[in-house]
Structure prediction request, 227 residues.
Amino acid sequence: MTIRAERDIYERTRQLMIDTQLIPRGITQSEVLHAMATVPRHLFVEEGLYAQAYNDYPLPIGEKQTISQPYMVALMTESLALTGTEKVLEIGTGSGYQSAVLSMVADKVYSMERIPTIAARARKLLAALHCSNVIVRVGDGTFGWPEDAPFDAIIAAASSPQVPEAYIAQLKEGGRLVMPVGAEDSQKLLKITKRQGKAVVETLGECRFVKLIGRYGWQMEKRETGC
Ligand code: SAH
Prediction:
């Protein structure tokens, strides 16, 4: 799936993001760099934040959620070692930015988002960008996506105290999972490879993501229910 590279006023800024934030920190896969140089990240934030969209930090997208820092998107995507033929499960669609990047480096993206308004906005933008190989569904992603499992790769952009069991179960043999695991305010970014049915765990670094809220993640707090 290819997003057409549009000429826009942020083209240079996008390239600067690659040259100053991604390459110096060790992102090397050319397909990932190409996707990050092509996807118009500014469109995934509100217009007042366009000028900041390519900066080295996450930004708010409403509902107390964030679009991940560009480097984090690149690191997580690269860690999945995709070749273009894979079926990928993404948990936490958010703005849809990570989904758009994945759509360029995988064959098909199944993306699950808990908050309906966020999912609707992402779906609309992804359609406008012709990301026809991404399906966005509303639901609790801690169950995974059993109907279309198994997946070659799974990526979760929200953090949990533990890896939901469904993710390992829904990975193919040799499949890769990347997700932040740990406490509310700080987590380790884990890469898990399924080898002979077992989870082989590597730590990619420290990170801080919003919470994965659901049956097998964090429980929703009372003040988050609006009651
Ligand atoms: N990669 C996204 C980041 C989204 S932030 C981007 O670049 O925009 C994480 C998202 O995970 C939020 O939108 C949040 O609503 C969603 N989320 C949290 N718990 C979830 C769950 N159990 N299932 C699906 N989505 C969830």
